[in-house]
Structure formats: structure tokens, C-alpha cells
Amino acid sequence: MSTHNHPTDVTVTGATDGVPAVFTDPGIPHHRDRQSDLHPAAEKRAERQVTLLFGLSVLGTIGFLVAYFTVPPGETVASMRLSNLLLGLGLFLAMFAIGIAAVHWAKSLMNAHEKAEDRHELRSSDTTRTAAVEMLREGTEDSSIGRRGVLKGAMVSALALAPLSVAVPLIGEVGEDWDVSKFKSTMWRKGTRLAIDPSGRPIRAADVTIGSVVHVIPENLSEAEHPLDEKAKAVVLLVRLDPRDLKEAEDRKGWSYEGIVAYSKICTHVGCPVSLYEQQTHHLLCPCHQSTFDVADGAKVVFGPANRPLPQLPIEVDDEGYLVAQSDFTEPIGPSYWERLR
């Protein structure tokens, strides 16, 4: 490691017209001392600031864990918003404060003298390796962590606790339900009426005009033990097309009714709700990553990262003219997961 404070001349081989054969290395700019370099009081103040930032990270992690266990999402939109807000604030404070503390430590307390390293062969010599070890030792001494006990304790505490804000939600609470088979079925059963979301009013086939789009839920959704969980799996998009525009597989020709088709609203990429329908092309767009499905052709993927069509809900009409399901979806809804190859 060498410090260059004087310019040097460098020869450029193969110089051409307009390019000088020799140019002057401007060297390292003049060093400007920081306040913490000049005044011990400023150095102590910077140390206290870094310690405070690490302390804020610890409080953020603790706040995250308290919110995780005492303010669960619940079953209402308001409770979900409150839980997400508290978790987000705790996670932000835990991670952001560590980052700011590290930057402030480096900028205000560590050695700020500019240094340059001369180019050398890719393979380091034994002497260079020994020098590298020595530089690491100097760096440890330069950080002054050995004589700053309070700051060291704050840093260790923040770094030790911060991973809990990620690990605890991944591990989950004791008794967490890991039965993934629940993702393979929804509330739809034979005879379940299709109802408008969110009013829950049943839908008559005669009320659905060509080109219209209806967001659909099971009529009996309110009777479920966990309505929001069931809705997240059972939401459907109902579209009516001109029957002449439909391209139906032989085994699915009985799944629609006079041009009315129903498909899962959950994108098969990462589970976002698809909802943007283009009437002229019959394309259904997912706003998250622009996966596009052709409703007229089995909701097959025509663009984007999704790798399989939207699952279709088989429908028919009951004696009173209401649209009802023939059965549940015949394949798992939503994105692929570890129990399914596609």
C-alpha cells in the first residue's frame, strides 16, 4: 500500500494523433481533516451518535417481535393494516438504523486518509499476503472497536437481534398450520351459486351481457370459518363472450354457459389478482408482472412470466336461472409451489 502525493508521468504506448504520448497523474487530492479528526469532543459525539443508531436498531427489532406476537393480522382489513404497519416500521428501523450506523462510523470515526494501491500481478506474493493480513490488523485497530466498549456492545446487540425480525416470521408460531393440501381446494362445490363481490348477491345468467366482467365469490362465503382466507382462494372472474369466439377443449365444452366463462382470479405466476380485461382481444392482464391470458382460448398464457393457464371453474345454470358451480376447480389455484412441478 502506498500513498501518492506527487504527480508522476505515465507513457502511453501506441499514442496516435491527438493523444499525448505522456500524461501526468494528478495524484491524490489534498486531505481535508474532519471535525472528529481535529477535536476529541467531536469524535466522542460521533461515537455517541453511532451507539444511539445501533440502539435504535435494537428497539426496532424488539418492536417488530412485540408487534408480531401481540398484534396479529386478524380477520378485518383494519387489523391487517395495523399489523402490517407496525411490522413494517419495526423492520425498517431495525435494518435502516444498522446501515446508517455503519456508514456514520466509517465516515466519522475510521481513518479517512486517501490511499492508492499500485497495480500488481493477479497472483499475490507471500510478501503481499503477509501485508494483507497486516492491513486487516491495522483496520481492526483503526476502527478502535477494542477501546470503545459501549459502541462495541451496541453493535453486537443490534447485529445479533436484527436477524430475528426475519427468522421469527419464517419459523412461525408454535402450532402453525403447515397443511399445504388446503391450497388444492376452495369453497366451490356443486350447486354453489356465483355471487357478486363484495355484495354477495347471486348472479343470473341473463344479467351478464356480452363483454361484461364480474368479480365473483361463493354465495356462502360468509358462512366460512375464515372468510378472508377462503375468499383469497375462491375469487373468480366471470366474463361473457360471443359463443362463436370461444375456443374450448373437447373435455371442457360443458364448463361454460352460452359464452359465459369463469376463471380463477389468482395469477399463476406469484398470486397477484388479475383484473384488467381488454374486450376486443379477450386478453386478461395481471398488473403485477404483465402476465397476459387469453380468456377466449382457455385462459392460456400469451405473454409474461406465468407458465400455465388460469384454472377454470366449471359452471352451469340452476332451475331459477342463477349461475352455479358444477364442482371445485380441477387443479390447484394460484402459483406453483413445492408440491407441484408446474
Automatic annotation (TrEMBL):
**Low complexity biased stretches:** 8-22
Locations listed in the record: Cell membrane
GO function terms (MF aspect): 2 iron, 2 sulfur cluster binding; metal ion binding; monooxygenase activity; oxidoreductase activity, acting on paired donors, with incorporation or reduction of molecular oxygen
* UniProt domain Rieske: residue ranges: 233-324
| InterPro entries xref list | QcrA_N, Rieske_2Fe-2S, Rieske_2Fe-2S_sf, Rieske_Fe-S_prot
Q: How does it sit in the membrane?
A: Multi-pass membrane protein
* Protein name listed in UniProt: Cytochrome bc1 complex Rieske iron-sulfur subunit
